[in-house]
Amino acid sequence: GHILLSKHVADDLEPYARWHGHLHELGEHEVKHGRKISLVNFYTNEVGNPEVPKIIRNARAFRGGVRRSLGSRRAALVAGGALALLALLLWAKFGGQGRSDIGAAAVPEKSIAVLPFQNMSEEKDNAFFADGVQDDILTALAKVADLKVISRTSVTGYAANTNRDLRQIGRALGVAHVLEGSVRRSGEKVRVTAQLIDTRTNSQLWAETYDRNLIDVFAIQSDIAQQITIQLQAKLSPSEKAEIDQPPTTDLAAFELYTRARTSRLSVGYGPLFKDHLLDSVKLLDRALARDPRFLVAWCELATTHDVLYFSGYDQTPARLALAENAVQTALRLGPEAGGAHLASAQHLYNGYRDYSRARAELEIAKRTLPNSAEIAALTAYMDRRQGRWEESTQNLERAIELDPLNWFTLAEISTNYIRLRRYPQVAAALDRAIAVEPTNVLMKVIRGWVPLYWRADPQPLHAAIESILAADPAAAATVSGDWLHLALSERDLAMADQALAALASDNAFTLGHMLLRPAFAAALVARVRGNEAEARAAFTTARKQQQETVRAQPENAPALCVLGLIDAGLGRKEEALREGRRSLDLLPVERDSLAGADLIIGFAIICAWTGESDLALQKLAIAAKMPTLISYGELKLHPWWDPLRGDPRFEEIVASLAPKEPAP
After folding, report:
1. Number of helices and strands (H, E) in the chain?
2. Helix H segments across 3-158?
3. CATH architecture of the domain with range 107-247
């Protein structure tokens, strides 16, 4: 059932990281004796209900009538019962402690966030050096099992040259302490300042200034990390102390190149610029490793970057996979017990081979020395998802968010789970959390706009979101171009489609699930909707030449092969299209990958529809509609993918099975 709280009670819980992501405002509603209160819906994966309560929906619909009176009385009873239930939940969780103790339990005493250090050097290019100092201290502390340490992604937004509200930061990150500092580099000298602050009282617990030779910077970082463990009374094992004492490299230039590379990879999410950032990172890491071939963490970073290039479909060639394999094996050879090396190995086994069993074994080793790794929790979640373990996946993503609470990408990944499960109220809630963390992220706003279209075949919120984004920043057209084009096709707005087509900036902007569709393919699809078969055929022919090159270079790339099948279907090459579609399903069955494999079922269904194999198309579509996939009521209702099947009673029955069962909120 629902757990409804008054806004007053919710405000008491909101500052605590354990609760704030589970509180969702419902607005003001009338309760007993005509009194109005603001209600908040509390729910997690285990308790509560993300749906808007029927009582409130009825109250909205029948406001002012007799039914409102009945609804008000029920709402008052539900709210009162919910408060009692929440009290019981909190009592069970915290042993009947008072409210002040709830905060103490929600925010561990031995918890810390290492904020970005301020670059005080005259040369502003030394900002990367200051970032490296902060990151290395954070990495060292994260290896201490007795501490809770917030991941890098969640602290990068708190720039050192801004007026930081440490109390608010502590609440947002769910930590009792923060470390802040500065770095001044001048010639062969360096000054590092650091201070430990209790975020609950805003009081300084420890501070130190280090004036040393530049070459001693790693010793400074180690000393700061050890001082923090002393101040927080954290247990430090001999192996953890050895890890903290070990410098990442002895070459400062290599260290700075590594820091630049890591920042480049993490600064941009999936989108038109992501591939370029990854390739830039590879170049920087190659230079770093040329200076210090024993730089272990740089080898780990290089392996990760090559694997992301491969897994994302930008370069799914044996050569790229071999580069990742070499980096992983070098890291394992340099540090056979290093958690980072085993994490890189797990990522490689997952990204390169979908070898979930061996990847999980590597993660178990990595956990021994990386107890605060949000990456381990997230990778476990991604494997859970690809193996069809959706609930476990969501739980592990929540664990990752606990350690990296402001990582919008991880928050968005939870929405991916809910989208495929067609739990649209939970999709909306997860994306609202992500947008609250990253309010300027246009991709999150666009995905949020998709929810009503998926759910109710309502394109207007997506239309409004894209219009607003482009009005604020016309240059964002390239970023949203793929979604813009899908929207235009769904609305059959050919003028908008032409605008979106002109904005397509790369080969990975327009997609169908895991399948990357080139601009020539997009142009062919627009021409077909326009009814210009000659233009469509010419564009499909261009797309086919390009796609054949990809398939020749990446013969095991199942999504690329399925795209070739779609192109051949568009060209009327029926036998080739069906053969390519079937081959893609054989290469990557849903049993091996419940995400990409499900997308290929959808792709094959479209191939069948376009080649006149309606029975087979409907058979595959019926399967996809019952699985966690991207198939939705709105897409089937509106997108031209499915035009050849419209009017067939079997197709209309599948569409109706996905129609929303509840009224709009």
Report:
1. 32, 11
2. 7-13, 17-20, 54-61, 66-94, 99-106, 127-141, 152-155
3. 3-Layer(aba) Sandwich (3.40)
pLDDT tens-digit map of 44-89: 655 566 667 766 655 554 444 433 333 333 333 333 343 334 433 4
What is the predicted pLDDT for the residue at 81? Answer: 40
Residues in CB range of 273: below 8 A, 6 or more apart: none
Three-state SS for 89-100 is: HHHHHHCCCCHH
Q: Domain 442-657, what fold?
A: 1.25.40
What was the pLDDT predicted at 313? 82
Assign domain 254-434 to its CATH architecture.
Answer: Alpha Horseshoe (1.25)
Cα 444 from chain centre: 10
Domain residue spans of the chain: 4-105, 107-247, 254-434, 442-657
* Cα 118 to Cα 122, 169, 182, 208, 368, distances in angstroms: 12, 17, 4, 15, 32
Q: Which two tokens stand for residue 449?
A: 């706009």
**Positive or negative CA dihedral for 448, 450, 454, 456?**
positive
Nearest to 246 by CA among 337, 114, 373: 337
Question: One fold for both 107-247 and 254-434?
Answer: no
The CB density around residue 91, as the number of other CB atoms within 10 Å, is: 12
343 with 362: CB under 8 angstroms? yes
Choose among 403, 390, 418, 595: nearest CA to 513: 595
The radius of gyration of the chain's CA atoms, rounded to the nearest angstrom, is 27
CA atoms within 13 A on the CB side of 101: 8
